[in-house]
């Protein structure tokens, strides 16, 4: 298959590396130092499911040079969606499928404004990873589960076959992708909000009574919002969410938490911010998600220069704070 990876970070890089190793024609669309590293010495993937070393990969910043492909994996950060979406149009032929693997619940609508809706396939990714350095993707933990729409679509059937042949890609087509997207949305918003605001890995949060309670409040607010929006969680959802979090390595943080630590822009508006907005619109109280949204809003576009030294530990005015 001819496959384009729009956004070659943790998710796109993992999929592209596995599919490229299996012999598929994969083009990575990236920018900056990550692009230059792939051009000069390829792409490396470190994973407990098996490392991949690709000394030569096709990588470009210009999607218009790629031509029509069978599959476009759209995996850019949510705040880049509006600028990245137009770039994929030249790669979309009559039979192309654009598979969204972003957080949140808005990707399909965003892409359907530029690509025929029948060719846009929603997807939910359960995988933890990050770019350790340009050209090196690190996959954390053993979970690699991808739920995508197009259950009866021959094009998606071909992708499923390709992923099975590649191995270590748990891709599954589902009939109700909206339910899968909302389930991921509720689960991720709680995980992302807690690990970002508490500034800790999921393991410490689960073992601390107050932090665990906060995580549960974020989850329950999401359940209430989803129900009011017409997408109620299925029976046993709480156990599902608990299983997802408990099976992660204890030091795992959400991508938003990692971005916060690195001073990068945040997907806040599309996660707890979206939950806050939906709650206001639907008349569902979301005090915990609202707290996450308001507490982190100052950092939504990256760490402001005025706060860069705000937690440096320096004393001011010659005074030392006292307790007791």
Return Rg in Å.
20 Å
CATH class of the largest domain: Alpha Beta
Strand content: 15-25%
The low-pLDDT segments are 310-324
Shape assignment: globular
How many domains is the backbone divided into? 2
For the record, the CATH architecture of the largest domain stands as 3-Layer(aba) Sandwich
- Classify the helix fraction into a percent range: 40-55%
According to CATH, the fold-level topology of the largest domain is Rossmann fold
Q: Secondary-structure element order, as H and E?
A: EHEHEEEEHEHEEEHEHHHHHHH
How far apart are the termini? 67 Å
Total strands: the figure is: 11
* Chain-averaged pLDDT: 93
Total helical elements: 12
Enumerate the strands of the largest sheet in spatial order, edge to edge or round the barrel: 5-2-1-6-7-8
The SS-based structural class is alpha/beta
For the largest beta-sheet, the strand count, sense and barrel status come to: 6 strands, parallel
Instruction: Name the CATH homologous superfamily of the largest domain.
Output: NAD(P)-binding Rossmann-like Domain
């Amino acid at each position: 298959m001819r496959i384009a990876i729009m956004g070659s970070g943790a998710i796109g890089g993992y999929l592209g590396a596995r599919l490229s190793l299996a012999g598929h024609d994969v083009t990575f669309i990236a920018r900056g130092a990550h692009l230059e590293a792939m051009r000069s010495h390829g792409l490396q993937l470190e994973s407990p499911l098996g490392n991949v070393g690709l000394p030569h990969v096709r990588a470009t910043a210009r999607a218009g040079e790629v031509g029509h492909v069978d599959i476009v994996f759209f995996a850019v950060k949510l705040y880049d969606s509006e600028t990245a979406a137009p770039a994929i149009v030249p790669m979309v032929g009559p039979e192309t499928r654009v598979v969204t693997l972003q957080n949140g619940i808005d990707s399909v609508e965003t892409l359907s404004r530029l690509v025929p809706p029948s060719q846009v396939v929603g997807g939910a990714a359960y995988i933890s990873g990050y770019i350790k350095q340009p050209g090196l993707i690190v996959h954390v933990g053993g979970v690699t589960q991808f739920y995508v729409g197009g259950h009866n679509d021959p094009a998606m059937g071909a992708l499923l076959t390709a992923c099975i042949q590649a191995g270590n890609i748990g891709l599954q087509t589902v009939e109700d992708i909206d339910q899968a997207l909302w389930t991921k949305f509720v689960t991720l918003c709680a995980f992302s909000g807690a690990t970002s605001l508490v500034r800790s890995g999921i393991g410490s949060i689960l073992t601390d009574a107050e932090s665990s309670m906060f995580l549960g409040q974020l989850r329950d607010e999401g359940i209430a919002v989803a129900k009011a929006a017409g997408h109620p969680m299925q029976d046993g959802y709480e156990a599902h969410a608990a299983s997802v979090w408990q099976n992660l390595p204890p030091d795992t943080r959400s991508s938003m938490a990692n971005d916060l630590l690195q001073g990068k822009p945040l997907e806040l508006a599309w996660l707890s911010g979206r939950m806050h907005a939906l709650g206001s619109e639907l008349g569902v109280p979301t005090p915990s998600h609202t707290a996450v949204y308001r507490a982190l809003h100052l950092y939504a576009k990256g760490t402001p220069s005025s706060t860069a030294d705000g937690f440096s530990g320096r004393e001011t005015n010659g005074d030392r704070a006292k307790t007791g």
